[in-house]
Design a protein that fits this description.
By secondary structure, the chain is of the alpha+beta class. Helices cover about 20% and strands about 15% of the residues. It has four helices and five strands, in the order βααβββαβα. The longest helix is centred in the middle third of the chain and has 15 residues, at about 130-145. The radius of gyration is 19 Å and the shape is globular.
């Protein structure tokens, strides 16, 4: 695993379509300095109405061309809605999906291990603690469903996600290197696999480094 990032979180800037500052409080005098605080993002269970926004955000932050992590698709998101004990949440800033986490109760052959599979935060919302809130609540849901521990996997070069997990109580338990042997006699089409549900399950935090906070 790579070391945690030491750089400060990137500045958020002003998201498109959002005013540069919070609105004035009702009855406030111009120039008085009285402003209403911006509403806090709220956590909600993942629902059908969030699928399009979650899929779009995932395509923006995941490197979906990295092998073997090529399983991001509508079916990869939607299948969580059929899970018996879903631990899937969205963080809403008004009607906008600022981030999401997708967890499930079973990891590989261990029915008592939870799996934090996917997490993403809109770049406009970095530095607000969104990712940590998502991780904390996902783990709480998995614990309530009977998980004795929660497993996740982070790409070795993704220091931002590794740091996020360490800050939230995760420790490295195993290091696996992917060995690849190119076969020049295999038709090129064989390497261009589709991105359907047959892709490996292990797809968590492959968002680009510095994208998840």
């Amino acid at each position: 695993m790579a070391d945690a990032p030491t750089d400060p979180p990137p500045s958020r800037g002003t998201p498109p379509g959002r005013p540069a500052g919070p609105p004035a409080a009702p009855g406030a005098r111009p120039g008085s300095g009285d402003v209403a605080p911006a509403p806090e993002p709220v956590l909600r269970p993942l629902g059908f109405e969030h699928l399009a926004a979650v899929l779009e955000l995932g395509h923006r932050v995941y490197d979906t061309d990295a092998m073997p992590y090529t399983g991001w698709s509508l079916s990869a998101v939607a299948r969580h809605l059929d899970a018996a004990d879903p631990a899937c949440l969205v963080m809403l800033d008004g009607d906008r999906v600022a981030g999401f986490v997708l967890g499930s109760l079973e990891f590989e052959q261990r029915a008592d291990w939870g799996y934090l599979e996917w997490i993403a935060v809109d770049p406009a919302d970095q530095g607000r603690g969104v990712a940590s809130r998502l991780v904390t609540e996902c783990c709480a849901l998995l614990a309530a469903a009977g998980a004795t521990c929660v497993v996740t996997d982070v790409e070795r070069g993704n220091t931002a996600s590794a740091g996020l997990m360490r800050r939230n109580g995760f420790t490295e338990e195993a290091t696996v290197s992917l060995f690849v042997r190119p076969l020049t006699d295999v038709p090129a089409a064989g390497a261009d696999r589709g991105r359907g549900t047959s892709a490996p399950r292990r797809h968590l935090t492959r968002a680009a480094a510095e994208r998840v906070r």
